[in-house]
Design goal:
By secondary structure, the chain is an all-alpha fold. It has helices at residues 2-37, 45-57, 64-76, 79-92, 96-112, 122-134, 141-160, 171-194. It folds into two domains: 21-138, no CATH class; 142-194. Helix content is 77%, strand content 0%.
């Protein structure tokens, strides 16, 4: 029983550490975007948009920096901001309504581009772009979440079954726990990298 409490404590500490990291990084990115838009050198919208997109990508359910980043991006209303909203929403698999609004801005802007096929009516061009944007390329968030679950399961096995009563490693459960932990960390990192 004591080993499971230790494993639970390690799992909770791991999840807590990840949550703290996400919130700190998200708030820092949000602040960087705010500083870029109100900077002493004058507003730098491209830097602000990039920073706010990073803040939106540091997703954690109920974290206030995420919604604040989407609100700032939507307030800008430019093509670059709409693309940032779309990218963050696809990466995290959240904020579908914001993504649809951004897709509408992107489609309308691309349809109005004078370098486009001007023989085709603007409404048809907008519908074509809207249809292309509606296809969801998928998200890598499930890979990151599965990686975290495997990582924590590996730690739990390592602590609960990988040590005997004297604190010595029990070869097979220790190897399984270490392997699951390593695979989980790789999956988590791959999910975050591809987001």
């Amino acid at each position: 029983m004591r080993a499971w409490l230790v494993a639970l404590g390690i799992a909770l500490a791991g999840v807590g550490a990840i949550a703290v990291r996400v919130v700190l990084a998200g708030n820092a990115a949000l602040a960087a975007g705010d500083a870029a838009i109100t900077g002493a050198r004058g507003p730098e919208p491209a830097e602000a948009i990039a920073a706010w997109e990073r803040a939106a990508r540091w997703y954690l359910p109920f974290a206030p920096h995420v919604d604040a980043a989407y609100d700032r991006l939507e307030a800008v209303g430019s093509l670059a901001a709409a693309r940032a909203i779309r990218g963050a929403a696809l990466a995290t698999g959240t904020h579908e309504a914001a993504r649809r609004r951004a897709d509408a801005i992107i489609a309308a802007t691309l349809a109005a581009d004078p370098r486009g096929a001007t023989a085709i009516p603007a409404a048809e061009r907008a519908a074509w772009h809207t249809a292309r944007l509606a296809t969801d390329p998928g998200t890598h968030a499930p890979l990151a979440i599965a990686g975290i679950v495997l990582w924590l399961a590996g730690l739990a096995i390592l602590v609960a079954r990988g040590l005997d009563g004297a604190g010595r490693l029990v070869r097979r459960p220790a190897l399984v726990g270490a392997a699951l932990t390593a695979i989980g960390l790789l999956g988590w990192a791959a999910g975050l990298y591809n987001a």
